[in-house]
Each structure stands twice: as C-alpha cells, then as structure tokens.
Amino acid sequence: MLNVCLIGAGGVGTIAAYVLEKSQRCNVTAVLRSNYAVVQEQGFDIDSVDHGQVRDWKPHKVIPSLSSAPTDVLYDFVVITTKCIPELVASLVPDLKLLVTPRKTSLVLIQNGLDIERPLAAAFPETPILSGLSMIGSRTTSPRTVFHEDPDQLRIGPYYHHVDSPLSRSTQLEAARLFVEVYNAGLSEAQTARKSGAECVLAEDIVAARWRKLLWNGSFNTICAVLRMPVGELLSSPGRSTLLEPAMREIAAIGTAAGYGEALTEDVVRLLLHDTPESSPFRPSMLVHLEKGQPLELDVILGAPLRVAREKGVNTPVLSQIYELLKVVQWQLLRQQSKEKGRAGQGS
Q1: Which of 47, 57, 85, 168 has the fewest beta carbons under 10 Å from its own?
Q2: What's the domain count of the chain?
Q3: Stated pTM of the model
Q4: 196: confidence class by pLDDT, cuts 50, 70, 90
C-alpha cells in the first residue's frame, strides 16, 4: 500500500482523499483543522456526481494538525489541497520536512494559480513536485458534508525544477505517472458504471495547462468575487462584454508574451466565453471564500500573471483594476479576521 498524507480536506481535498482510498492502493492520513473533532467522531457525508451518496466515511487516519502526523511512516505522496496563499505555504515547510523522505516522497500540489511550485521546489530539491489542476465542482456545505456536482477532472504533471542533478527528469515523470494511475483506479467506477466524465490525465506541459486554466480563474473567478454574483449572472450582465471578455483577452496576451500562446488561442478564449449557460448558478471559489470571510488566493491568481505582464510590457487595464479592488477586499477580510482572533484571545 502507498502511504499518503493529504493537507486540506475541504471540498477538493475530501474528494481526492476518497478517490485515493477507493483505489485500494493507498492509506490516506488526512490533516483536518477546525472540523477534526466532528469528522473523527462521525466521518464525512458526501453527495457526489461521481460516487453517489457516501455516508459516514473516514480516511484511513485523521489528525488535527500537520505537526501531529506520524513521522515513523514513509510517505509516498504528500498531497496539498489548501488554498494557495504564500504565507500559508511558507508556514507548512518546517513540518513538511519531517514527512518528506528524499528520493521516495513526492509533493502533489492540487491548487490554483501560477508559479505556485517555486517555494516548495527550493525547499525540497531532491523531491519530485507534481503540479495539479482540478476542474471539479465540489464544496463543503458543513464541517462534515461535501456536495460534489461536477465531474472530477484532474490534470497532473511534473514540475521539472531539477533535471539530472540531483533529480532526474525520468524520476519526476514516473512519480507523476504513478499518481495518475492510482487516481484513475479510484475513479474507475465513476468512469465505467456512472460514465460521469471523471478522469485524471498526465499533462505534458503543466505550466501551459496552468495558463489555460488561468484564463477562467483570472477572469470569471475574480470578477464574480468583485461583483458578488454567480457565473450565470455575470454572463447575462453588461459585465460580460465590458469586464469578462477584456480580462480574459488580457490574460491570453500575457501568456502569449510568456511563450504559451498555443494554449491560449482565440478558439480557447471563445470556448470559455460561450461554454457556460447564462442560467448557471455556479459560485466560483473566490466568491465562496469571500462570502465565508476567508482570505482570497489573490496573489497566485492575479498577482503572479500581472508580474509577468510588467516584465513583458503587456498592458492590462482591466485586470489591474480588478486586482486593486480585490486587494482592498483582501485587506478588509484580513482586518476582520485579526479582530476576531483578538476577541477570541480576550475570551480565553
């Protein structure tokens, strides 16, 4: 059996943990924080388009913090599905070093954004970094319930941070192939009996794939958060032509200037603009986090591509304005979070 430690059992992470265990090739230790006690006692209830109704399910092991993960286990994969906020990632590194065995463990980042791999690649030069993009409609509806409405489509590829010394390209590729194989084993019922469209695919160029997803995340995700409206409402509003399409084209221009134009063609842009019906009630992750009062993945979704835009001399009037608006929203969220922590500390 493969040993997996999964950090971030929210909507995406809980489904990933379930799939990995369903493969019957993995024992998953899931790191839970605020919901540890209730899941430890009652397990998860999952309503899934891929897996049907799952009741009272628990991973092989649940623990309340990363620092409490068993260190006598040699982990094959450490899977990170938390929101990608730079400060949070940096805080994980000391505990991760206790769990990562050089030349055995692979780090799997199933997270949004651009250039997210660099900090961990620097901290773990002898560890394969597998970069993952999840296209999945899955969210928590209570501390122990998950609603999963869109098929689990995962793209995984090696982030080639070292080639041959100290880590060979073939080693990194084989680690990605193994993860894809195991994940698909866990999806086999969804693929055959349910024909849900769920799949895990090995991505040859994961950076190009990240730019492709950023077309959607950097436009729909951010604008829906600024306007506080679901995807369908944005598409039926005047903002479709004045905000959404210009933002998407700015992202395509940045990515093209960075050398990834083949992933950001006019056909791709038009598909993303017209593929979703105006009746869609889907609320993107950034809007959901905002409504819950949680920090936003602003730096990796907009900050990173805007830095590339400045380097390449690409003009981004719409994206820059959206970014500045969301920076104020983020400031407000962090300020409120700080106040709540202060009140909690006074009451203890």
Answers
A1: 168
A2: 2
A3: 0.93
A4: confident
For residues 200 and 222, membership in a common domain is answered with: no
Distance separating alpha carbons of residues 105 and 74, to the nearest angstrom:
8
Q: Is 248 domain-assigned?
A: yes
Contact at 8 Å (CB) between 155 and 206? yes
Q: Are residues 331 and 195 part of one domain?
A: no
One domain for residues 59 and 167: yes
% the chain with pLDDT above 90: 85
Check if the beta carbon of residue 62 is closer than 8 Å to that of residue 32. Answer: yes
Distance set, CA 79 to CA 28, 211, 320 (Å): 10, 22, 32
Q: CATH number of the domain at 246, please.
A: 1.10.1040.10
Separation of alpha carbons 95 and 222, rounded Å: 32
- Domain holding 254, by residue range, is 209-339
The maximal CA–CA distance of the chain, rounded, in angstroms, is: 57
Q: What is the pLDDT of residues 266-315, one digit of tens each?
A: 999 999 999 999 999 989 999 999 999 999 999 999 999 999 999 999 99
Chain-wide mean pLDDT for the chain? 94
- Say how far apart CA 210 and CA 108 lie, in whole Å: 15
Place of tokens 């098929």: 151
Query: What are the DSSP E strand ranges found in the chain?
Result: 2-7, 26-31, 44-48, 52-57, 61-63, 77-80, 106-110, 129-142, 145-158, 199-202
Distances (CA, A) of 197 to 133, 151, 267, 292, 305: 16, 6, 22, 30, 30
